[in-house]
Amino acid sequence: MEDLIIARRLRVPIDSAGDETSEWGQAAARQLDAALLSVGFACSPALLDRLARLPGAQVIDLGVRVLAAVRRLVGDHVEHNAYFVDFPRNVPDTLEFWAGLLCEAMLDPVAAARLQPGVLNLLTLPRYGGYQHTYADLLAAHAELVPLAKDRVTVLELGGSLRDEARELYLSLAGSEVPLAAEDLAALRELAAFCSEDQPERVPVRENRAVVNEVRLAAGRPLLVDTVTDVLRLAALCSGGDVTLATPTRLRSFRRAERRVLLAALDTVPAAKHGDVLRHREQWKRLGERLHPHEYPQFPRAAQVFEVARGVREASSFDSRVEAALAAGRTEEAVSLLEHTPGALLRRLDHLMRAGGGSAVLEAAEKAAAHASGRVLLSLREHLQNRLALVDRVFTNRYGRAWTAADTRAPLKEDALNRVLAILDEEIGRRLPDPGELIVDPAVLDVALPLSGKAVAPGLGMLPRGSLSPVEGELLRFFVHWRQREQRTDYDLSALMLDADYDNPAHISWTSYANDFATYSGDLTEAPDGASEFIDVRLSRATKPIIIPQVDIYAGERFDEAAEAFFGYMTRDAAQEGRPFEPRTVRMKSDLRGSGRIALPLVFLRGDDDAWRAKWLHLYASGHPSFNQVEGNRVTTSLLVRSIVERDYLRVGYLADLLRARSSASTGGHVTYIGLEAPADLPDGARIYTPATLHELIPA
User: How far is CA 141 from the centre of its chain?
Assistant: First the structure.
């Protein structure tokens, strides 16, 4: 729980407070601060002061845990060795390297005997694909890091007690208006059990509601349910299955008390919503076998749910009725059906406007906007502001898998489009709170609003898809580290480089070690104890303005099957010495996951001002079951990246403008701060939004 608080909030929870400063406590606090600085972290003044008031032994114990947590966060908990011991110096030419390995094999009688006539598999040559030196050898070959003021220093703040910090994080995640990443959903489940006595006022996201309901079910309390699917999600979660219901779950048996609570919740759902059963009919049949609804005659509507699943009782889903009306050209009928579900109407607004609904559709949209969720309003705003652009459509699922398609939809009338945008702006602005005195860090204005967090794995420096962030430094170095679980696993770090028209591709990978401005650290083909690969880019020399890092699965386990897999990048000055991996120069690091075989975390772009920026992708391409290479997926990759880069994402700057319009700053009023990290001089009681809490900016 302590690790979770530190990683998610960069706060150190401390339960007890010493009465007075002790010399031992002061010394231990200074030692911890120095150790943290070596990995790019530092204690805030308030945290240092509190640590100095604790017994020295307690500071040391806490410091060991804090240091371990931040090292994991930045990726410094493993040894990052490189194939070429002097990387980025003395990396051989690609052909020279392969020719050398082949000569060695031919001169070695044992290795030469293994070579088959007429067949040459370069990857099976002796000494290829594994480390030829120890990590100690690597350290001896590199000078110590030359510290610079531009190196990253992330400040750890003083937290409250562990229970208070856990409660605050729990209520923030449970009340999130946007779906959470899989890691955050798992964290929410942990927190819900830890904070079982604390109940959020509202839980708008269905998956989050299932997590909260799991605790309520264990306590025998009534469930938070307004659709039948809420009960099925809970049953899947309690059975150790997929709460999203994307994959079927083998449901467990439930105790009589649990069956009574589940059936009582089902009985509260109106019969008009029983059509939702048809989406997961087989799962409902299996659940009926576990709940025995015939034993509980006091819940007649619950029994009807399972009759629908078995086909004994007819029920048509709401979506099917809407689709039938639209397919028959009865737009007015579809609108009248959708008027009772504002969120569904706004999600279909583009279709309704193209179907010729005219002013009736706009009037219905205006009424629906007053009742739909803030996330739906913002998602529609982002969608509509992109309708005038002639770019391919990009589709992503909950796992980050992405694909593109040409936009063949009929254009929307500009006057109608502008009217809807005005309606949305007015309604979104109305829901925002009065920020009082609003302070906004300019660096956060280009961060995309987190309208969905599912594809974003938590980590250091992570931002939502579509966000732009500056890249400072002359040297860019990105890296991947993985450790296989059961079978030989070969990941390949590569970079696709394109011109401003997304054409004339060049690449860096195990088949092309270097060009005039980029260098590859060498190919590792298995990782029983972990393996790291790096690509070094001299940005000032780069002849291509688009650089797309990617991680290809050449063989072995998927990202979510490996024991460990993460990606990140560092920036340095050109003359700055140090090891291939230096934690205090790491700007971003996060786990790799998902079922795709090609990971596309972000893209680096050079603007007209010659400044470099990163745009966050969080994409996974399907790829092939094995042997994925950057050369084979460059068309798909360029199409996906272009769709993201050219899309106009709704950013923090949009909400900041609306908040300024509502601001009623006055002497002694409250303060709202929005930025990448909070400054130390904010007044007590200030409302702070950083990337970790940006989801709280989304209005209800």
Answer: 36
Q: How far apart are the first and last CA of the chain?
A: 28
- For 167-190, how does the pLDDT look when each residue is reduced to its tens digit (9 = 90+)? 999 999 999 999 999 899 999 999
Distance separating alpha carbons of residues 283 and 302, to the nearest angstrom: 15
Structure tokens given for 166: 């856990």
**What dihedral angle (degrees, nearest 10) is formed by the CA atoms of 86, 89, 93, 98?**
0
CB atoms within 10 A of CB 529: 11
| pLDDT score at 406 | 83
The helices-and-strands tally (H runs, E runs) of the chain is 23, 20
Q: What is the dihedral of CA 640, 645, 650, 654, to 10 degrees?
A: 170
- Report the distance separating Cα 622 and Cα 240, nearest Å: 26
Which is nearest to 243 in space by CA: 254, 235, 253?
235
Residues linked to residue 550 through DSSP beta bridges, in sequence order: 494
pTM of the model: 0.91
Closest CA to 581 of 492, 478, 429, 667: 478
Please check whether residue 396 is in contact with residue 367, taking contact to mean a CB–CB distance below 8 angstroms. Answer: no
Q: Helix or strand or coil: residue 431?
A: helix
- Using N-to-C axis directions, what is the helix angle for 182-194 and 162-174, rounded to 10°? 130
Task: Break the chain down into helix, strand, coil percent, rounded to 5.
Answer: 40, 15, 40
> Using CA atoms, how far apart are residues 237 and 245, in angstroms rounded to an integer?
9
